[in-house]
Amino acid sequence: MTKRIRIKDRYIGGGAEITVQSMTNTRTEDVPATLAQIRRLERAGCDIVRMSVNTPLAAEAIKEIKRETTIPLVADIHFDHTLALKAIENGIDKIRINPSNIGGDRALREVAAACKDHGIPIRVGVNGGSLEKSSLDRYGYTAEALADSALHSVSLLEACGFDDIVISAKCSDVTMNTAAYRIISRSVDYPLHIGVTEAGGGDLAIAKSYIGIGSLLMDGIGDTIRVSVTGDPIQEVYAADTILKALGLRRDFVEVISCPTCARTEIKVDELAAEVRRATAHIRKHYTVAIMGCVVNGIGEGKHADIGVAGGKEKSAIIKHGEVVKTISNDKILDELLREMKEAGID
Ligand code: SF4
Known about the structure:
- This protein is 42% helix and 20% strand.
- With 347 residues, it is an alpha/beta fold.
- The chain is elongated, with a radius of gyration of 24 Å.
- It starts with a strand and ends with a helix.
- The chain binds iron/sulfur cluster (SF4).
- Residues 259-262, 264-265, 292-294, 296-298, 301 line the site of iron/sulfur cluster.
């Protein structure tokens, strides 16, 4: 079990629910645009939002942004520790730095002390593009080097008496990325922020995140996730949410399972499944609905669902946990499923 870290009113690690993170791509000093994006991310299901704090104006903007939103905010800072100090002073909830490039021991000590005073955590974020020379010399460009760099960076912060730490160690190679996280997870008990960085755009980027994040989560590694996709960050949140739902780590929704359809299909499986999804999108309880195209395989295949339908020529079978409870005419299927759900308190 990892250590539990608090970021405002959320927790990372120690068995806390896995949080979804994303990052704005507006100019942070453009407060209206940044706030609008933060709100869109929040509505999409994001739990924690990171912003680049790369200028004094961006650090200044934190004050106003904090006044207008309650979601925990992270300042992403490189090289200039004074920006970190300013962000902390202006109320940021967490900072992300690479301790190796923040300006030396003294600068790091000042940042660690300020974070301690304000009770905010630090994410030690190391990427494949900025590995320690000593790690590269020793291991080459490998998962060991990535993990070694991250652990070295963590030790720099620990030397400042600071342990309110979350770690990330990302690269764009899924295999190397996951191997590095496995090494870190074996070595320390700090919570891990996992993701595949610079994954690119489109389907490949999403696939890299599904595999890279999903395979770690399946092994119980990872406490907070960020899908990285070029473009609108909203798609990152949707993809992260999908990963958590697919792994059963987020269960506050109605899960519609449906067969792929084939020559035996008797009902409009795709339309019905989409209608059930639409009608239940607002429900924050877990319930499974199976839409199966025929009774030949549908009854058996749908038996793990709370409710389901197996299509027949004119009439279809309504099934509950594998038992046929009634048959209804095909034009009444949607109404019947929703009525049954309502009766079960799922509405
Ligand atoms: S449940 Fe029936 S209709 Fe659907 S794919 Fe299987 S055999 Fe085909």
